[in-house]
Every structure is written in structure tokens, then in C-alpha cells.
Write the C-alpha cells for this entry.
Amino acid sequence: MGTLEPLCDKYDFSARMLETVRSKMRRMGLIDHVSRFNKRHGYREGWVFSSRFGKSLSQLAGIVSASRERKGPRQEQKDRGVFQFL
């Protein structure tokens, strides 16, 4: 728990909250645990962003860009209907 204390003090949240978020990110596949035996990461133990996280951000950026493109009036009407449910 010693390594989490500076983060908790700096951002004013509990260590339990940080562990909960970390476990949820792990289950979603956004972060991976690195073993100290992993040569690729310099034999350092800890957490790293997964390749899935980068791909997810790229897809999200693509969705945002596509939503800004001009479409026909019929498609805009459908989009307005969808945004009402969000």
C-alpha cells in the first residue's frame, strides 16, 4: 500500500477507491499487469496500458470525427432521435 499513498494524498481519494478503479480497468482489458520477469518492460513490475486501450481511443476518436461530418437531412433526424435517449 505504500506506493499508493502519495497518489491518494495528492488527489484526495482513498486507497480502496484506487484499487477498485484499477480492478475494473483490468477486467475491461484497459491495463495489464507486468511481471518483474518481463524483459520487454525492463524487468519492472507494475501496471501498463494495454494495446486494447490504444485501439479503443482510436476508435472513439473515429466515432467523434464521423459524428461531425455532414449527412443528409434524414440521417440528421435519426441522430437527433438517438441523442434524445442518451
